[in-house]
Amino acid sequence: MREIAAEAGVSLRSVQYHFGSKHQLLVDALKLLHADNERRARERIAHDPADPRALLEAIMAEFLPLDQQRRLGLRVLAAYYARSLTDPALAAVFLGAEHPLEDLVADIVARAQEAGACRGGLDARHEADLLVSGAIGLGGDMLHGRREAAEVIATLGYHLDRIFGPRAGR
After folding, report:
1. Fold category of 45-164 in CATH
2. What gap in Å lies between CA 18 and CA 6, rounded to an integer?
3. Among 164, 106, 96, residue whose Cα is nearest residue 130
4. In 32, 87, 142, 143, which residue has its Cα 20 to 30 A from 70's Cα atom?
5. From CA 122, how far away is CA 113, in angstroms rounded?
């Protein structure tokens, strides 16, 4: 906490007052990291309602370490996730009752189905779960050097082809 106070240019007492404990500081920092990642993702993602596939490609890319900023963010989240397996307060940040990302992806798929922009008969929720968990897992493989970006992007593209049909030129 001393290092954090020094880095922030405030007194140690001020940090202790606002956070109460090192553990609370970690929990609040994780919440801040989630909010910051979401803000950055929103800035990077160009939203074209006429192209739901492109929107999903951009959303899934946010879970891949495609640049230094995302690589560092994913490493920090991985460290927090490992600790959350034995820390209920951190787990609560990761495992809230809501699933906003999966809900967003499912909504995009469902709207695309309604508009005839993708295959009918899909379960939008299951597709969302597969896309999100696949992107997160493949991003982890990239962090470990197990897979290259082109391979991961092709795999996610394969799944999107199953949902939307192949892109022209594939």
Report:
1. Tetracycline Repressor; domain 2 (1.10.357)
2. 15
3. 106
4. 87
5. 8
d(CA 68, CA 114): 38
Q: What is the pTM of this model?
A: 0.81
How many whole angstroms separate alpha carbon 82 and alpha carbon 50? 39
Distance between CA 3 and CA 117 in Å, rounded? Answer: 52
pLDDT tens per residue across span 142-162: 999 999 999 999 999 999 999
- CB atoms < 10 A from the CB of 71, how many? 15
Q: What is the pLDDT of residues 18-65, one digit of tens each?
A: 888 888 888 888 888 878 878 888 888 877 778 999 999 999 999 999
In the predicted model, is pLDDT for residue 68 greater than 70? Answer: yes
Residue type, 5: A
Region of 120 (left: φ > 0; alpha: ψ -120 to 50; beta: rest) is beta
How is residue 114 written in tokens? Answer: 């309604």
Rounded CA-CA distance 164/117 in Å is: 7
